């Protein structure tokens, strides 16, 4: 997870409209005894699926979790990037028999195609970077493999992605796999959780929040995309925004310590891959910004990097996690 974040920075419950955010589903007539064909507009490309996929790969733990929550364990032939985040404990046994294709990076083209998938589900387009040795979208298409990228992870959506992009993904996956009831249940549950948080923080003074990412002594700010929306929904006032010049082309930007100190946020949210990175980040922030309001008040809020990636149920849980830290008296523990 840390590698992907670094690479990204360096490389620069109502009815939902499925044509929003560049993703949509349309069905075609079914042959006798066969499931209806589905055509998806995903990341600006048309993906045709002739029948319900039966050999599926989750390209990260977040996507694997979503597929398992939809009841598709028997269709999974591979899971990838397994060391970047743990699966929830209640899914450990269910996932135990699913072949691991990679641990810390996306699987190589050869490793992915070895399991002969007919559908792969990825959080971002990074997993399809041919220059990194991964299978490109074009190569997968040539091999007859349908590739679906989480709506918020599409290149042209990364700057404006929102938490409820997840609901578009769930609706699409429900149609693709014929599990509409399970998908609708997750949508309703997620929407109810967001509504509860919205009610809890309504009318309260919004703490000024900076979302940062620290690697070594390099400090980056997050000012757009799903991460921005997560803080907004949690009842925080983002000090960095998509309107800032440094986020004109990308959701993250390297900043100087002086620029963060000048903003003096009330709270700092930062994504980490593991406990070691959390300790290192806290140490850096407390040493570098001893007089910052967020540091003096002890409002340093770590969140799992995996929960901030597009197309994951963690997008919703991390909203609540941050909201409880920003507004501790608004929630019953």
TrEMBL record:
Domain of life of the source: Bacteria
Gene3D superfamilies given in the database record: Nitrogenase molybdenum iron protein domain
Signal peptide stretch: 1-22
UniProtKB keywords: Lipoprotein, Signal
InterPro entries in alphabetical order: ABC_Transporter_SBP, ABC_transptr_periplasmic_BD
Entry-linked Pfam families: Peripla_BP_2 (PF01497)
All copies of domain Fe/B12 periplasmic-binding, residue ranges: 55-330
PROSITE patterns: FE_B12_PBP, PROKAR_LIPOPROTEIN
Family note: Belongs to the bacterial solute-binding protein 8 family.
Protein name in the entry: Lipoprotein
């Amino acid at each position: 997870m840390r590698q992907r974040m670094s690479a990204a920075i360096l490389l620069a419950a109502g009815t939902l409209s499925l044509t929003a955010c560049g993703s949509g589903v349309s069905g075609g007539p079914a042959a006798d005894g066969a499931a209806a064909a589905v055509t998806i507009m995903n990341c600006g490309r048309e993906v045709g699926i002739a029948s319900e996929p039966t050999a599926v790969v989750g390209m990260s733990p977040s996507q694997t979790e979503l597929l398992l929550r939809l009841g598709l364990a028997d269709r999974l032939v591979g899971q990838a990037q397994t060391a970047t985040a743990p699966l929830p404990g209640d899914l450990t046994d269910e996932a135990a028999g699913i072949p691991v294709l990679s641990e810390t990076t996306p699987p190589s083209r050869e490793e992915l195609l070895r399991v002969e998938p007919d559908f792969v589900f990825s959080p971002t387009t990074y997993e399809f970077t041919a220059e990194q040795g991964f299978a490109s979208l074009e190569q997968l298409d040539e091999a007859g493999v349908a590739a679906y990228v989480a709506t918020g992870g599409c290149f042209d959506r990364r700057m404006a992605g929102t938490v409820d992009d997840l609901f578009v993904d769930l609706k699409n996956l429900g149609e693709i796999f014929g599990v509409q009831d399970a998908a609708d249940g997750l949508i309703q549950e997620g929407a109810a959780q967001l509504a509860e948080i919205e009610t809890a923080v309504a009318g309260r003074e919004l703490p000024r929040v900076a979302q940062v990412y620290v690697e070594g002594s390099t400090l980056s700010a997050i000012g757009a995309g799903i991460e921005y929306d997560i803080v907004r929904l949690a009842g925080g006032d983002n000090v960095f925004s998509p309107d800032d010049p440094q986020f004109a082309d990308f959701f993250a930007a390297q900043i100087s310590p002086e620029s963060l100190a000048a903003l003096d946020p009330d709270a700092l949210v930062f994504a980490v891959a593991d406990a070691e990175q959390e300790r290192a980040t806290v140490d850096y922030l407390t040493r570098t910004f001893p007089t910052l309001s967020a540091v003096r008040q002890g409002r340093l809020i770590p969140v799992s990097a995996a929960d901030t990636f597009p197309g994951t149920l963690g997008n919703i849980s991390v909203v609540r996690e941050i909201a409880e830290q920003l507004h501790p008296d608004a929630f019953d523990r």
